[in-house]
Specification:
The protein is mainly alpha-helical. It has a single domain, classed as Na+/H+ antiporter like fold. It has 13 helices and no strands. Helix 6 packs across helix 7 and helix 7 packs across helix 11. The radius of gyration is 19 Å and the shape is globular. The two termini are 37 Å apart. 47% of the residues are buried.
């Protein structure tokens, strides 16, 4: 397994500049659509339901990155540098854009879910670069025992460029979307759902096209990537559920926190990975790219599956 993934790390995937530009624009539109549904009242939930919001934020930005670091250390004999850093990068990203929809299907607290999305998106501008730099740097310095092989080059992390990219991709669309919603509320009501639906479809199409263009690599390595992402996603969901349970969060809120922690914005991870000012294209990024890309597909499948299950479970029992 390790030898196969080592080969994957050094693969240069087939993407063209136009496709990368389209990915950046698509993610910007997705975040603009998310921002259209965010109101200032969502931030007031920090005051009205502080425990649930604080637990949700801690779950996403403190415990999930820490647990992900522990996971890659425990799996050090099975995962390569690129795969491990891919896991840490996804864990450093905020919740995914479909978490609110999945939370509603699961009979969770949708208001809390939207509030967590709003708070997490704002915090991600600072905490995503910080978390990846900290946990990724810690892994490169202490957790990676495989650097001795001559097939690997050490991956460096440009904190400033990552912060700048996250701000452009997340921060600006968030600000513009909230301003648009505030100034043009009637138009916002009409366009919010279409924009959110279309942007998600476009993003999924991008991921599918990317896999088609790299079909031979997909066939050779996907079985290992699927297992690793499955384990990581299960860990993320378990982290959210466990932390919410430990702090005695109400059951509806617990469902939303579980989903918010298990649905990650892997599109942001892809955008960062394709930014040559952050990651040198000559570095072994194949494993990181495959982890982020498969997360973009798998978390939707697992999220919808979990929602379908929870929908049938009475709130008084879970």
């Amino acid at each position: 397994m390790y030898e196969q993934l080592l080969q994957l790390d050094n693969i240069r995937l087939n993407f063209n500049p136009d496709g990368l530009f389209a990915l950046n624009v698509t993610l910007g539109i997705i975040m603009f659509g998310v921002a259209l549904g965010i109101k200032m009242s969502n931030f007031k939930k920090i005051v009205t339901m502080p425990k649930a919001v604080i637990v949700g934020v801690l779950s996403q930005f403190v415990f999930l990155p820490a647990m992900s670091f522990l996971l890659v250390v425990l799996m050090k004999d099975y995962v390569t540098q690129g795969v491990a850093l891919g896991i840490i990068l996804v864990a450093a990203c905020p919740g995914g854009n479909i978490s609110n929809f999945i939370s509603s299907l699961a009979k969770g607290n949708v208001e809390l879910s939207v509030s967590l999305t709003a708070v997490a998106t704002v915090l991600a501008v600072f905490l995503t670069p910080l978390n990846f730099a900290f946990w990724g740097g810690l892994y490169l310095e202490y957790g990676n025992t495989q650097l001795g092989t001559n097939l690997l080059k050490p991956i460096t992390i440009d904190k400033y460029q990552m912060f700048l990219s996250v701000f452009v991709v997340l921060g600006l669309p968030l600000i513009l979307g909230m301003l648009f919603s505030w100034k043009l509320p009637k138009i916002t009501k009409k366009i919010t759902k279409p924009i959110q639906t279309i942007s998600i479809v476009i993003f999924m199409s991008f991921v599918v096209i990317a896999f088609v263009k790299n079909y031979e690599y997909f066939i050779d390595y996907i079985q290992w990537i699927m297992v690793i992402v499955l384990i990581h996603n299960a860990l993320a969901l378990l982290t959210g559920f466990s932390l919410a349970s430990i702090f005695g969060v109400r059951r509806r809120n617990r469902r939303s926190i579980t989903i918010e922690t298990g649905i990650q914005n892997s599109g942001l991870a892809l955008v960062l990975l394709f930014n040559d000012k952050i990651f040198d294209p000559d570095l072994p990024l194949g494993g990181m790219l495959f982890i982020a890309a498969w997360w973009g597909i798998w978390h939707i499948i697992s999220g919808l599956g979990l929602a379908a299950l929870l929908k049938r479970v009475p709130l008084k029992t879970f």
